Structure formats: C-alpha cells, structure tokens
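Hi R.,

Here are the chain sequences for the assembly we discussed:
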Amino acid sequence: MNKDMKILIVDDFSTMRRIIKNLLRDLGFTNTVEADDGLTALPILDAGGIDFLVTDWNMPGMQGIDLLKHVRADNKLSKMPVLMVTAEQKREQIIEAAQAGVNGYIVKPFTAATLKEKIDKIFERIDG
Amino acid sequence: MVDDVVIDEVFINRARDLVVSAEQGDDEQVKKILDELSAMKETSLFQELGKLTREIHDTFKDFRSDSRINELAESDIPDARERLHYVITMTQQAADTTMSQVECAIPLCENITQGTTELLDDWDRFTQRKMAVQEFRQLSKTLKDFLLSANKDSKSLMNNLNEVLLAQSYQDITGQIIYRVINLVEDVEKSLVNLIKLSSKHLGVEAATGKNSKQKDKGSLDGPVVPGVADEKETLSGQDEVDDLLSSLGF
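And here is the predicted structure of the full complex:
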C-alpha cells in the first residue's frame, strides 16, 4: 500500500472530514483532499490523481451512493477503491452499497482501529 | 344568502304578476302566486342546507383521512423526543470522554515541564563547569531516565489527543439527528396549517388540498440509528453486524 496515495474525503460535516483526515494522517496517509458532497467531489475526481475515495452516504446535493455509482460507471475511475463511512446501517442499504461495488463499509461512530482494519483489508485485496 | 338565490328573473316576474292580480282584485290568482313564491323560497333554502351539510361532512371526512396528523401525534413526535434524548446522551458522552482524556494528559505535561525545568538548571551548571564529576554521572543517569519517561509520556499524550479528536464525531451524528427533527417541526407546522384550512372551509375560505403527506420519498435515508427508535429487524446494530452481512455477500 502506497502511503503517498491521494485520498479524497467526502462528507458534508466538516467535523467528520477533519476526524477522518487526522485519523488517516495518524495511519501515515498525509496526502488528502476534501469535498462536502458528491457534486463538489465530481470535478476533483474528474481532474484525476485521486487514488482512494472515502465517502459519506447521506449528503445534500449528490449522495455518496450516487457518487459511488458514478465512479463505477466512469471508465477512468471505475477501478478506484471506495470506502463508505456512514451512519446508514439498514440491511437493504448495505446490500445496495455492496451491489454498487463498494470496497468497504464503516458505520458511524467508528474507531481509529476500524478505519485502519478496513483500509488494510481493501489494499490487501487490491495488492494481493 | 338564501334571499340572493331566490330573487331571480322568474321570481321578479311572478312578483309583478302578484301586484297586477292584486290591483285587479283577483283573489284566487293572488293566493296561487303567493303559494308559488313561498315554494320557490323553500326549495332554495333546502338546497342551501343540503350544500352546507355536505360541506361539513366533507370537512370531517378530509380531516379523518389526513392520516399525517395521526402519524405525527402517534409516532413522529415521540420518535423525535427519543432522538433528541439521544443527542443529549451523545453530547454528554463526548464531553465526558474529552474531559477524562484532558485530565489524563495534564499530569503528563506537568511531568515533562518539571523534568525539563530541573534538567535545564543542571545543564546550565554543567556548561558553566560548575559541576563535579560525580554529580555529572548522576545527571547523565537522570537525563536518560527523563528521556525514557518523556518518550513514554508523549506517546500517551498522542493517544489522549487522538481520543479527544475521535470524541468530536458526535457533532456529525447529532447534527444529522437535529436536521431530521427540524424537518419534523416543519411537517407539523404544515399539518397544522392544513387543519386550519380544512376547518375554515365551510366559512367560505379557500380549501386546502389536504394531501400534504410528506410520506417517505423513495430514496430517503434513515440517518443515524437511535437506540429504541430504529426498526430492529431491518437495522444492523453496529460494525460487527455490518461486517457479517458483507462477508455473507462475499466481501
């Protein structure tokens, strides 16, 4: 796993973006950018250079699930690993995310250990 | 209202006939026209009464079928109460965690401050060659001990700071919950306005459409799980259950 990879954090709450950013930094990932919903995330993704997407689900504008579907449908972005970090934990929603091709799913509130575990698992699969 | 309806062209013509008949002294004709006129008035009165009755009936029917009001009173308001209680619990937990971590961190900072103050003092004496060899050996040992403990303390401090950081995640969850309650309050307001419109309908005020129902649109999300409010069957109770579900799906 490349610790210099560029990570896009998408969440409408700036507190949560800061928490994720700090936790990632603690795990050795310092190259992060932020967006506050799917619509603001899209141009950043389209501009290229993002290696990993961490997104919330419930956001105004464009929701995380639609952002995920957009990424999977875009030839240039479709291989990008996507980790969903959300307060949504209905069975059908998790299944929907899985079907849309999410790589990991974390429910809020979460711990630093959970974030590390999920990221490790995602990149183990990709690298392995 | 009743009189307005009665006085139409037919009525006026018959009234003229009545005057003519009376002037001619035609008693029979006068009696006949008077009967006719009062019958016209009665028909119109009954029509008005019928209309009024139907309006009242419709109003009650609309009121009963506006299930949003029942839903608000029976489930949404108690639900919002639970959610707000959960906000209190979460903010309190976050405050407690933050304060405990800060309380753990303060003595660590004090250790470092005290240790560096003493060492600076000794170090100054050493650089000014005011220290005996025996004392320097002691200083060397003290320095090593301090470096070890400062190293340990700063790691603990880092840990405390991370816990403080994580404790702030309540803001996201409580923010989402409060947004939902605000939406509910707007919903209650709309329903009350509708109710007022419905009850003023028979007074001639323009009626409300009544179909305000802010039913869950498809694609609307449930937001944070609040203990006691969630639909237990459909909602998973945490990361472990989410992981289980995902692994059953081949993750």
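Chain A has five helices and five strands. The first helix of chain A runs from residue 14 to 26.

Let me know if anything looks off.

Best,
T.
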